[in-house]
Amino acid sequence: MSSPRGYRGRLLTPLAGGGTAYLDDALLVVERGRIVSVAAWTGSATCPVYDLRPSVLVPGFVDTHVHFPQTRVIGRAGSPLLEWLDGTIFPEEARFADPAYARAVAGEFVSALAAAGTTTASVYSSSDEQATHLLFEALAASGLRALAGLTLMDQRCPPELLVPRAAALAACGRLADRWHGHDHGRLGFAVTPRFALSCSRALMEDAARFARERGLLVQTHLAEHPAEGTAVLAEHPFAADYLGVYEAVGLLGNRTLFAHAIHLSASEWDRFAAAGARVAHCPDSNFFLGSGRMSLADATGRGITVGLGSDVAAGRSFDLRRAMAYTYDNALCLGHRVTAAELFTMATLGGARALGLDGVVGSLEAGKEADFVALTLPAPAAGESEVLAQVAFAGGVRVERAFVRGKRVGVE
Fold first, then answer.
1. Hey, which of 133, 145, 350, 378 would disulfide with 346, CB 3.0 to 4.6 Å?
2. Element (H, E) at 119
3. How many whole angstroms separate alpha carbon 293 and alpha carbon 287?
4. What was the pLDDT predicted at 410?
5. CB burial readout 265-280, b (16+ within 10 A) else e
6. 164 pLDDT exceeds 60?
């Protein structure tokens, strides 16, 4: 889209400098995929205007933790994490060695993201190189923005999912060469050790080196369940605690995104913060598998960047609004209240910060790329506080349209 185009509607956004902004009748002007201006509607415009009222224009949601090969097993729980992986997830992920199956699910996956208003996602693929390539193809065709990675596992998993260290790193190199930076940075490759239990020390050290040499995001799991933590330390006795495993192999740093981070000591949180690592908070899946409750206050009180993750398929929905509501409930259970504005920011700009993309997306401000969604609220809402409350908590909110770089994606 080369010529300017305006979008009129109510508008709600977090701000890079802090806080939020709301306009009851706004004009968002987009040119060449970027936001040119955001201002109150004055009654006229110098470009074509698409009237999206009464929808509320918000930044596209940023899902910081989601599993592509778990799309078809949402809702299958009934056991704790490690048993759930063995009984449900690993058998399903083994099916992605079939290219036809992987291609079909990739189409379903990108459609589900767009329908939920998620315009940016940090995605775990399977351990199969071809399936990961097919995921990137689907993401490229969809117009969505994403980071994605081959899930690294060279031990403690079924033989059909195990990929030896040298082969896995070679596959990462081919995938990164092909897809990292695709479409002027719309897609990127993330180094993705599943978790310390399924990775040898040598594989994690190689993964850390690969990420460092190429300047890539690292995404992995940390301290999701007590039994997992016990098993990790038995497997890697060189570390005193779970975070120490990642420290020792070079995977703890300011480009590392850890999902869950539920069962951490004060020392681990302090070292986490000092390293500049980020959290993908996944309260829906934490509740569903009975894994525990992450202390949001422990993270935010130390200045740690927190984004929200759907964590499909332990998470029961692609909808990050559900993650907002569960984040509120989780914090309340631990004696900490979170405002609707804080939740909204975590689901948008906070997620962008967690992925290192906050200079590009996450808020509707001039100069950023035009990733936004139009939401229809279920009831009349007067003013910012009422709109925020419905966006964060109300049932019946609908995603009417989703845009990446000003181009409509997915939702019909």
1. 350
2. strand 118-124
3. 7
4. 83
5. eeebbebbbebebbbb
6. yes
Amino acid at the residue 316: R
The DSSP line for 4-47 is -EEEEEEEEEE-TTSSEEEEEEEEEEEETTEEEEEEE--S--SS
Tell me whether strands 61-67 and 118-124 are parallel, antiparallel or unpaired.
Answer: parallel
Measured CA to CA, the distance from residue 369 to residue 120 in angstroms comes to 12
The two tokens of residue 196 are 């310390």
What percent of the chain is modeled with pLDDT above 70? 99
CA-CA distance, 282 to 326, in Å (whole number)?
9
**Closest Cα partner for 132 from 163, 91, 155?**
163
Contact (CB, 8 A) for 199 and 153: yes
Query: How many C-beta atoms lie closer than 10 Å to residue 335's C-beta?
Result: 8
CA 230 to chain centre: 27
Closest alpha carbon to 195 in 98, 291, 271, 108:
291
Query: Which residues are 38's β-sheet partners?
Result: 28
Residue type, 363: S
Q: Which two tokens stand for residue 368?
A: 């950023």
Residue 129 pLDDT greater than 80, yes or no: yes
| Domains of the chain, first to last | 5-59+363-408 (2.30.40.10), 61-354 (3.20.20.140)
pLDDT, one tens digit per residue, over 194-206 is 999 999 999 999 9
The percentage of the chain sitting over the pLDDT mark of 90, rounded to a whole number, equals: 97
**Is residue 163 helix, strand or coil?**
coil
Mean pLDDT of 324-352: 98
